Amino acid sequence: MPPARAAPEAAVDVRSLAAGVLLGVSLAGCAPPEPVRIGFIGGLSGRVSDLASEGKDGALLAVEQANAAGGVNGRPVELLVRDDAQDPEVARQVTGELIQAGVQIIVGPMTSAVAEAIIPLANQAGVVLVSPTVTSTRFSGQDDHFFRVVSTTREYASAAALFLRRTRGAERAALILDQDNAAYTEDWARQFIQAFEASGGESLPVERFSSAREVSLMPQVTRMLDAKPDLVVIVAGSVDAARLAQMVRRRAPLISLLIGDWAATERFVELGGLAVEGLYAPQYFSRDDVSPRYRAFRREYEERFGVAPGFASVAGYDAARVALDALALPGGTLRERLKAQRVFDGVQQRIEFDEYGDAARPVRLTVVRSRRFVPIDPEAGEGMR
To answer: What kind of architecture, by CATH, is found in domain 154-283+365-383?
Structure first.
């Protein structure tokens, strides 16, 4: 009887199995690396969406540039964008989503009211927040996971108060603020009033409104102007600030106007039209920067998004670059890396964190001329043409 041939067939099966295993290992070795995920949180819908939209575009450009250069340590970068709707409850929800997605660093938030809502969640989860635009001093000097690439309300409001008082001779200031972002607006108003009164000015009773609820602002405007101020200070987002400026100028066309840095977006100038000509705004961003670094950034931003960058675009880009640099650094947690590195390059200025993650940027006063923000000559006190 001839011998059975089952053994050779079994040997063939074993060899095939081994080859399959080796092929699987080879293919696994060729698989693309897992992406590094960065979060973005901002109010991308509603009345203040221009701020977050600019910030998101700046962050997206930074991520796209990083990927074009090979990613972070050879891994591609993915930006997970979430809309907080400028609502604290929504903000907490989307922050939780990003934490569940494994994000370890988030660019945002864009407003102080949202920061107040989500900083505790970030601290609890050990997730780092790098805010482009949150300025309230409520978050200063805290040993937490919150970092920011801008100065605080103290620098912006004080610089504006001293300029209007000493250079423009303002004596009686009437303020109106949006209480829906009270973490920012109340703080900004307090810093302004302290500096204005310390330099000999008088602050009139502060008017408040809710951007989410109120239809008419005429009662507040009437009370402000009936008090006979020579300066009206509007601390609100771009849409409401433009609307208030128009209402004030209809009744008092020659009165001095000042807005907080929150409103100083490109949309504000578009919405305000002729009513905001001659209006003042403090900000760190220079639209007339001719440095090679800024010119390259502006060119790439315009090519990518079809519009010129605003201050939040630059701030969003800077915050994302800080996040990307932190991810590329060796050793320790992201928070520890940021605290150890401390100094990072920005588009226009260097970003230097103190021991609490707060940064200081030079603040300049600008004035609206021909529908654009123009830096003020500190000696002449006028917009440089």
So the answer is: 3-Layer(aba) Sandwich (3.40)
Note the pLDDT tens digit of each residue in 210-251. Answer: 998 877 999 999 999 999 999 999 999 999 999 999 999 999
Please report, in angstroms and rounded to a whole number, the separation of the first and last CA atoms in the chain.
Answer: 108
Amino acid symbol at 255: I
Angle at 372 between CA 42 and CA 214, to 5 degrees: 50
pLDDT in tens, 255-288: 999 999 999 999 999 999 999 999 999 999 999 9
**Structure tokens given for 124:** 């609890």
Please tell me the class of the 36-151+289-353 domain: alpha beta
Rounded Cα–Cα distance for residues 137 and 319 (Å):
19
* DSSP letter string, 262-274: GG-SHHHHHHHGG
Separation between Cα atoms, residue 299 and residue 185, nearest integer Å: 33
Give the DSSP H or E segment for 100: helix 88-100
CB atoms within 10 A of CB 96: 14
Fold agreement (36-151+289-353, 154-283+365-383): yes
Tell me the domain boundaries of the chain: 36-151+289-353, 154-283+365-383
Q: 106, 131 in Cβ contact below 8 A?
A: no
Q: Where do the DSSP E strands lie in the chain?
A: 36-42, 77-83, 105-107, 128-131, 146-148, 172-178, 202-203, 207-209, 231-235, 256-259, 280-283, 343-344, 351-352, 364-369, 372-377, 382-383
